[in-house]
């Protein structure tokens, strides 16, 4: 987090696990979010150096992993990238619509579960949290660019029966400039972060490479309201006054957040 973010603007927000409860944002009431220029919404932010959209999802060179040849590893990397794009960059999904782009990429068995619990009132099972979606009708995206920084790596894994799998672990961070729906300002930068893995396997040696969206190690959003009742993100434009304790949302070494946890964070 830059010194400017803490000392000059006194901006603060909250992080929270979004899988069930969303994330909170708290902000010094004296800080004016309209200082973000909608024509250059990333100016002055660390995200300004990130790549645009899917270009920020870096695929490493593929090499054999366990029993899986380099061709399988490359296919797994490409599938993981497509899943990340569909889950976190698809416009229809981001604006609260049906996450069709993501749904079509899921394995047939996982797709059934995802659709069964999509937008469920039971927040312990609501699969809307698998994707990044702002509450329908709540925001407009500012411009055509979303800043992204993501990386992935492959390793050998096993399923519950000890059968070999190919695991692709990834970290994904995206920054979205938004303003209230139909209103030109204020502009906020909202961040989504996820650290998780996708699991790949074959049912038989000559069968297709199947995949599963595996467990998340860490997942949160910043500058959004806490305790989402429905799995959708809602930017926090009002905030809470006199918040000066901050953490760095860009810190890759920060400990994973706990379920339902909120924490103050500096300017995005």
Structure explained in plain terms:
This protein is α+β, with helices and mostly antiparallel strands and 268 residues long. The protein has one domain (3-265). The chain has five helices and eight strands. Strands 1, 2, 3, 4, 5, 6, 7 and 8 form an eight-stranded antiparallel beta sheet that branches. The radius of gyration is 19 Å and the shape is globular.
Give the arrangement of secondary structure elements:
Layout: H1 3-8, E1 13-17, E2 51-52, H2 70-88, H3 91-94, H4 100-103, H5 108-117, E3 139-141, E4 147-158, E5 164-180, E6 188-201, E7 210-222, E8 263-265
Antiparallel strand pairs: 1-7, 1-8, 2-4, 3-5, 4-5, 5-6, 6-7
Organism: Microtetraspora malaysiensis
Keywords: Signal
Signal peptide: 1-24
């Amino acid at each position: 987090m830059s010194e400017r973010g803490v000392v000059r603007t006194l901006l603060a927000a909250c992080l929270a696990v979004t899988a069930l409860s969303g994330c909170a944002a708290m902000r010094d009431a004296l800080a004016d979010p309209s200082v973000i220029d909608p024509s250059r919404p990333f100016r002055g932010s660390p995200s300004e150096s990130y790549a645009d959209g899917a270009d920020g999802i870096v695929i490493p060179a593929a090499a054999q992993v366990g029993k899986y040849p380099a061709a399988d590893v490359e296919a797994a990397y490409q599938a993981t990238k497509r899943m990340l794009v569909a889950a976190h960059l698809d416009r229809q999904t981001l604006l609260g619509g049906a996450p069709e782009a993501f749904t079509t990429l899921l394995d047939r068995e996982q797709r059934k579960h995802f659709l069964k619990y999509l937008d469920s009132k039971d927040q312990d099972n609501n699969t809307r949290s698998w994707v990044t979606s702002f509450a329908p009708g709540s925001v407009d995206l500012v411009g055509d660019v979303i800043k992204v920084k993501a990386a992935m790596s492959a390793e050998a894994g096993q399923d519950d029966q000890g059968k070999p799998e190919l695991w692709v672990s990834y970290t994904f961070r995206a920054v979205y400039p938004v303003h209230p729906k139909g209103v030109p300002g204020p502009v906020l930068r909202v961040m989504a972060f996820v650290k998780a893995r996708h699991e790949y396997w074959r049912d038989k040696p000559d069968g297709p490479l199947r995949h599963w969206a595996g467990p998340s190690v860490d997942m949160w959003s910043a500058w959004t309201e806490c305790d989402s009742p429905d799995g959708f993100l809602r930017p926090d434009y009002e905030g809470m006054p006199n918040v000066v304790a901050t953490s760095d949302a860009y810190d890759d070494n920060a400990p994973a957040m706990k379920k339902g946890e909120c924490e103050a964070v500096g300017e995005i």
